[in-house]
Amino acid sequence: xxxxxxxxxxxxxxxxxxxxxxxxxxxxxxxxxxxxxxxxxxxxxxxxxxxxxxxxxxxxxxxxxxxxxxxxxxxxxxxxxxxxxxxxxxxxxxxxxxxxxxxxxxxxxxxxxxxxxxxxxxxxxxxxxxxxxxxxxxxxxxxxxxxxxxxxxxxxxxxxxxxxxxxxxxxxxxxxxxxxxxxxxxxxxxxxxxxxxxxxxxxxxxxxxxxxxxxxxxxxxxxxxxxxxxxxxxxxxxxxxxxxxxxxxxxxxxxxxxxxxxx
Length: 263
Prior knowledge:
7 strands; Beta Polymerase, domain 2; single chain; alpha/beta; globular; 2 domains; about 260 residues
């Protein structure tokens, strides 16, 4: 199990404030604070990453606790701490942590300054895999015994569900993709989706991008290279190419074989 502190002092400061606030409100109901996403997997990029977390609680939150935690997060977001606006995560009862349930929740969620209660999407199959595999605790015991292993086929199903539910509608309404930085995010997300479909494994966006450059048809290489270079290099407006890559990934997700190998 890896533990706090991490090699990012500004991230450590916001995590310490989050831990202190959550523990003060929840008391013995607080079981632990854990990291997933790029901070856990090793792909954290200070220029573009979020601080992804989950707080595990002994039982469901009461309305008073939800109100107090929301107020705490609003105060944290306004604190001026560098990474406070980039916090993204959930408060999850221990009983709901073991495996993903599409009908589970609602849970208190935090997403870059927004605070709401909602169920979890299929990405939480992948988040559970990351939480269990990397076992990155800021506070609390090892999270691994609390989560069932996630099989390669479960990961592949999660990718297919995410592609159908989140990315396919963008082919008809690409408003999210109007921002160039989101185009880069979309391209690297497609690389990671294709990698998981092919291998049944989860890697960082950067590792998936490198895999895609070595594996996919060379016609995608320029698009992927420019996405990997952002934000160090300017991101051109490549909406049509990004949509084409999403369409390609969706088509691959419907096939039983791995993505086409480079020729």
